[in-house]
């Protein structure tokens, strides 16, 4: 998912305006918007809320003056509800973005070789952001590090051109350059055999290839 798809047209435009010429990378790639730029956007959210509150006060004053004009009353109420929804949606996007940034940083600090693959194994519903601290993530990461050690480490299982690194073994008895689920070595016959006969190995190979085992019925 691109940053524009994640944020939506309006929020994405504001982020780009605030970032200026500085680079903004897609979150799923493990990169994140510079904190100072994100703080500016967060402050804009507060300013937007203040402006909408002022409009609500003006609308409430107008409603009182409208007296028995039911049509005008209904229109004012409609505008007030739209204002509240705008603020709520904006805050929800900011909060989700903050959570995503924190998770990506945590995966990078944990030396995840493929943050996207590791993230797919997390139960994100049980991960909460409390201020700057993630709750419920450390336990999950520790469990994955113990069960799937090959997903973490300083050595990259891919070479600088993005292909498999033949010098790195995944730690499960199969080299990273012999993965039938990868784009370079795609093999449906071998995939089917592994899924039927060696589901655990298939699951690890699928994750190594950057996909989700659930997409293969595992």
TrEMBL record:
Keywords associated with the record: Coiled coil
Coiled coil: 35-100
Pfam families per UniProt: Phage_scaffold (PF06810)
InterPro entries per record: SCAF (IPR009636)
Name the record gives this protein: Phage scaffolding protein
Organism: Bacillus licheniformis
């Amino acid at each position: 998912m691109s940053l524009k798809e994640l944020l939506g047209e309006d929020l994405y435009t504001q982020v780009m305006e605030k970032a200026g010429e500085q680079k903004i990378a897609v979150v799923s790639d493990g990169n994140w918007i510079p904190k100072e730029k994100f703080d500016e956007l967060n402050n804009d959210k507060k300013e937007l809320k203040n402006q909408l509150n002022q409009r609500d006060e003006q609308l409430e004053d107008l409603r009182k003056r409208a007296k028995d004009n039911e049509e005008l009353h209904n229109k004012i109420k409609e505008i007030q509800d739209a204002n509240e929804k705008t603020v709520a949606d904006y805050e929800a996007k900011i909060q989700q973005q903050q959570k995503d940034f924190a998770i990506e940083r945590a995966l990078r600090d944990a030396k995840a070789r493929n943050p996207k693959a590791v993230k797919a194994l997390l139960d994100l519903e049980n991960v909460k952001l409390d201020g700057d601290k993630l709750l419920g993530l450390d336990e999950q990461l520790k469990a994955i590090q113990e069960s799937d050690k090959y997903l973490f480490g300083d050595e990259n299982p891919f070479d600088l051109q993005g292909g498999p690194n033949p010098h790195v073994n995944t730690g499960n008895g199969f080299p990273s350059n012999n993965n039938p689920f990868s784009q370079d070595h795609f093999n449906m016959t071998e995939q089917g055999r592994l899924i039927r006969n060696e589901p655990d190995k298939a699951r690890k190979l699928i994750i190594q290839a950057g996909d989700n085992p659930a997409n293969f019925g595992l």
